[in-house]
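Consider what follows.

. . .
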Amino acid sequence: MKSKKNTLWLVVSVFLVALMVLSACAPAAVPTPEKVVVTSMVEKQATVVVKETVIVPQTVVAPAAATGPTCGTDPVVLNAYFETGFDIPFKLADEFTKQFPNVTWNISQDQFANLINSAPRLLSGDNPPDLLRLPTMVSFAKDGLLMNLDSYATLFGWDKWPVPQLAQNRIAPDGTRGSGALYAMGLNYSLTGIFYNKKLAAQIGMTEPPKTVAEFEDLLAKAKAAGLLPIMEWGSAKSGMGLAFPLQNLMAAYGPVGPINDWIFQKKGATIDTPNNLIAAQHLEQWIKNGYFPPDINAIEYTDAASRFTKGEGVFTFNGDWQNTAYDTGMPGNVGFFLMPPAEAGGSPAAMSAPLTYGIAANAKHADCAAFFFNWVATNDTARQINVTIGGSNPGGPADATMPTVTAGSVTNETLAAGPVVGKAGNSMDFIANATSSIFAQGWTPELQKMVGGKQDAAGLLKAVQAEYLRELAQ
């Protein structure tokens, strides 16, 4: 398996976008972390799979007032596991230490796909993380590895925030998501869709975003005919198969999002193998056969795909707003965004939208400080600005919180503006990679890689993934 306006109405609407869940895979052993000491988080993000970082206090800024537990004044070292390749948690951790100099960090980082496999070991170990990027939650909560955050929600007043923000991270006694006890918080709330290279899009005659899937497919065909790569995407097992992004968008274009979310939330009797999803998978299969993706997609990692798109390879790419800053930096003024169009003209668009989910280990040594960090991220003005400027996503928080400023011309303006559109339509989804702890690694990624290699078709894809889903639920 991982989310927008300048007025209150826009803020509330974006929260509705976070109504469901998205968060991304091959089994892999995690190497022993390599310790380094850094003062610049961006410069020192690792090229190794896992790295441990110690953030050193810098300048002191007046801390925000807290209504619940705090980190105190004694030295605290927060043990955290972040996702490799994303600046936002590192930037937030750095700023937190500036404001609270008694708090330093031991940060390990790993690919999202590897976190899926290593999370159980990390959470049950002798030194469990105070903060952990969560690829999924249900099995961890069921096994007693995650801390129930309900008491913190009451103390900090999170239960008074817009309901959709917390609903995605709640788990009911029967194991379904969307209600029940709170087991995680979002560092922000992301939105996904289609980014495009404006110059290349102009070359194929695109003057406005397509209004239907047919119009979008016409643009893909024109790009291919012009000798351009229609869609840049990733597919390596190390990052998890990125074709799940266009596939899920197609699913929502050809059918309602309700059954998709039911499957992700493990509702009884839910299935991904539906007639509408078959149509979606058939479209994706045809895109593959038409050569709309890189021929080496199964070997491309996420960061490589993002870099190649930024350098001009690909007219379109399916991705999330967390990539906004890198796109704006690498291709200033040349990147645009639109939501996946519906199958029929006049239909409502849909999008995968979810919090950047983090949890606290049940036996974490500094749970109070970690919970205070969650609250600070959503309520501190500087932290909220970092979320928008670096993360490109809505920072969430109280309904009356002020939306940070956005740079004029940034693609973040476009992704934030798309939030209320999806929110009004009620068509937000969690990510199909989050249905179970291993469905991305054991289901979607290998089966989609087989489709790329011509060894799996649309019908077989859905049946194989559903079978893996049921196998995992039966464990």
